[in-house]
Amino acid sequence: MPNWTRRRWLGAAALGGGAAVWALRPGETGAPHAARFQVLTRALRQAGLTQPTLVLDRAQLQANARQVRANLDAALALRLVNKSLPCLPLLDELATLLATERQMVFNLPYLQLLAEQRPRSEVLLGKPFPVAAAAHFLAQPPRSGFDPVRQVQWLVDTPERLAQYRELARQRRQVLRINLEIDVGLHRGGLPDEAALREVIGLLQGEPWLQWSGLMGYDAHTEKIPDVGGLRAEVRAQVQQRYRSCLDTVQASPLARDRALLTLNTGGSPTYRLHRAVGAANEVAVGSALVKPSDFDTPLLADLQPAVWIATPVLKVAAWRAPDGVGALGTLLRGWDRNQRVAHFIHGGHWLAQPDSPVGLQASALIGASSNQQLYLGSGRQGLQPDDLVFFRPTQSESVLQQFGDIAVVEGDRVVAMWPVFPARA
Prior knowledge:
The model has no long low-confidence stretch (mean pLDDT 93). It contains eleven helices and 17 strands.
């Protein structure tokens, strides 16, 4: 073995360390659009759509609806969450596929719209309205034949709110159906304990203008619990137990009614599969799962597939040059990561969405998000040119579906309809 000096040893170590660090460089990624997105691109081009557009794959939507219905216990009713599906033709399609006229509504404008445009709907509020909103709706009844007395269940979460609704009903001499929100563990809202529940029972007893119509308990928190040591299963069981206890308390009171006449709502897209007709609830709510944005990529929803994307044109493609002032850092990053060599500036951006196709695009760490012309970097393997489309997958459906005007509905390789969306509201 040669007699190495300390300098030679240090040099060898530096070379070895440098090689190890170099081996950690990100691998080069990227590829052109997969076949599915090539078809969507042809459809949008043939339709002359050149702006950022919300695209719906109708066949996948229908497949998701069939799968949801197949997953549900046949004795459980299903209620559509309209804030997550904010488009009347979309709701119509799903109502037909799922054989339901039940909808969950979260604000006054959507309640008014639904009552006027779809007068056969049966509505449960998804969150409590200020009593002034209820008064406004009742003071301007829809002209469609929709009957607020029979077709709306007002959600109440506190004794104080129930007292307000009681006063409204008395003033108007109009019966209000009251569904009680119960806290089953999320602690965001709802009657928190037995004492509060008994207080609202006392307020409802003997009040001719209020009619108890059921319970609503939202349980989405269970799927956020770490699935460690049986903790998630324990929390799921606590939800069921809490719901059953609340129902038993009301049914043991003078308010008791035939369960078949009650709306006992629970679940949501993350948890609908957990419920069976043998439980306390008799219906579940589902919305976002039917179009499957990325926040709903969970084990319980693994048999559903994405059905919506944002499609937007590329405005400029060029070798990536960092802005003045950080040019040296940009050069370093470009040399380190081969996936930062090519710049793609798109039409719009800064959405609640991530690039889905072509694969391998990433936002720049040196240039912040832009709602005008956002930058996405890639290796160049994507093969994008100006006017080509990039497809983004929304992280959620509520609000995002309403940002792009009419939804482009694609069947096969054609845009077959443009579906108008609800006006944006919280």
